[in-house]
Design a protein that fits this description.
alpha/beta, 7-stranded parallel beta sheet, 7-stranded mixed beta sheet, Dihydrodipicolinate Reductase, domain 2, 2 domains, about 350 residues, Rossmann fold
Length: about 350
C-alpha cells in the first residue's frame, strides 16, 4: 500500500480527492490537514466520507509528511511551494493541485498571482500534469503540477489541432461555463444562492489566472506563440465545465479529416471520448467522472472550426486527474479508482 498525505483535505477539491482515494486499492491515506477543521475527524466535516471517517484533520505541520510516500497539496496559490520543497527533501513525491508550479516563467507567475514565484529549480523540475500530453514525463516525476480546471478541458479540446499546426495561433476564442464549486468552499458574495441561482454571469473577462497557463501549454503544443481570448462564466450548477472554442484553420480540411485526426490523437486514451457527429457534450454526462467528452464541427461558411469539451471541474479538472497522475507515477493501472461513469440524471 502506498502511504499518502492530503494537505488541504476539507475544501471541495480535497473532499473529491478523498472520495476517489476511498476506493483506491493501492493507496492508504495516513495524514490529513485542514486549517479550518483541525482537531475534527473527516466524517465530522463530510459525513459522506465514511471510508476515511475516523482520520483526524491536523494543522499543517511537517510531521504530517513523515509517514507519507506521496503528498497531494490542495492549497490556494502561494501556499504550495514551501511545503513541496520540504516534502521533496524528505523523499516524498508531490502532486500539487494548486497553481504554484504550473507556470514556467517566474515573471508570468508574479504578474498574474501578485506573489513571489517558487524557486526556479522547482519550477524547472515540475512536470505539467496533463496526463494525456505528458504521460512519459509524469512517470518519472518527483513533482507534478496538476493543471487548472479550465485549461484541462480547453487544452484537450485543441491539442490535436495545435500539434498539427492547423489553427491560426492568434485566432482562438474560448467561451467557458463553470459550476459554482469551482469557486471553492469559502463563502463569497458571488456564490450565494440568491446571487447565482437563475443567473449566468461572466467574470474575470480577459483576466482569469488560467489564461497564461492555457497560452503556455498551447504554445508548447503548437511550437509557436499562441494568444487566446478567454471568457469564463459562472452558471447555476454545482459541477462541470463546458467550453466552446472557435478558431481559424491554417489550411483547408474537411470535417471528417478533422475527426479522424482526433480519433488518431486520442486512440487508446482511457478518459477522452470523441462523440459521434451531432452529439454535443453535456456537463451532466461527466458529472462525478474523470472523462473529457469532445466534439467538433467545421463551419464551412466561415472556415472556422468549433470544438466543444465537457469535464467535471472537481474530477478531471482537479482530483481525478491528480489520481490519474498518481497512477502513472507509481506504475498502477491508469484507470484505477477512476472507472466510474458520469451520473445522469
Amino acid at each position: 500500500m502506498l502511504a499518502a498525505a492530503v494537505v488541504g483535505a476539507t475544501g471541495y477539491t480535497g473532499a473529491e480527492l478523498m472520495r476517489i482515494l476511498s476506493r483506491h486499492p493501492y493507496v492508504k491515506v495516513v495524514g490529513l490537514t485542514s486549517r479550518k477543521f483541525a482537531g475534527q475527524t473527516l466524517s465530522q466535516v463530510y459525513p459522506f466520507l465514511l471510508e476515511h471517517g475516523e482520520l483526524l484533520c491536523e494543522e499543517l505541520e511537517p510531521h504530517v509528511l513523515e509517514k507519507a510516500e506521496v503528498a497531494f497539496l490542495a492549497l490556494p496559490h502561494g501556499h504550495g511551494a514551501e511545503l513541496a520543497d520540504l516534502a521533496l527533501k524528505k523523499g516524498v513525491r508531490v502532486i500539487d493541485l494548486g497553481p504554484d508550479f504550473r507556470l514556467k516563467d517566474p515573471k508570468t507567475y508574479q504578474e498574474w498571482y501578485k506573489l513571489n514565484p517558487p524557486p526556479l529549480s522547482l519550477l524547472q523540475e515540475a512536470v505539467y500534469g496533463l496526463t494525456e500530453i505528458y504521460r512519459g514525463k509524469i512517470k518519472d516525476a518527483r513533482l507534478v503540477a496538476n493543471p487548472g480546471c479550465y485549461p484541462t478541458g480547453v487544452i484537450l479540446a485543441l491539442a490535436p489541432l495545435l500539434k498539427r499546426g492547423l489553427l491560426h495561433p492568434q485566432s482562438i476564442v474560448i467561451d467557458s461555463k463553470s459550476g459554482v464549486s469551482g469557486a471553492g468552499r469559502e463563502p463569497q458574495l458571488a456564490t450565494l444562492f440568491v446571487e447565482c441561482q437563475e443567473n449566468i454571469s461572466p467574470y474575470k473577462v480577459a483576466r482569469h489566472r488560467h489564461l497564461p497557463e492555457m497560452e503556455q501549454e498551447m504554445s508548447r503544443l503548437a511550437g509557436c506563440p499562441v494568444q487566446v481570448t478567454f471568457t469564463p462564466h459562472l452558471v447555476p450548477m454545482i459541477r462541470g465545465i463546458l467550453s466552446t472554442i472557435y478558431g481559424n484553420l491554417t489550411q483547408p480540411a474537411t470535417e471528417e479529416e478533422l475527426r479522424q485526426l482526433y480519433r488518431e490523437f486520442y486512440e487508446g486514451e482511457p478518459f477522452v471520448r470523441l462523440l459521434p457527429p451531432g452529439v454535443w457534450p453535456h456537463t451532466r454526462w461527466v458529472y462525478g467522472s474523470n472523462y473529457c467528452l469532445l466534439n467538433l464541427t467545421l463551419d464551412e461558411r466561415t472556415g472556422r472550426v468549433v470544438v466543444v469539451s465537457a469535464i467535471d471541474n472537481l474530477t478531471k479538472g482537479a482530483a481525478g486527474q491528480a489520481v490519474q497522475n498518481l497512477n502513472v507515477m507509481c506504475g498502477f493501472p491508469e484507470e484505477t479508482a477512476l472507472k466510474e461513469l458520469g451520473l445522469c440524471p
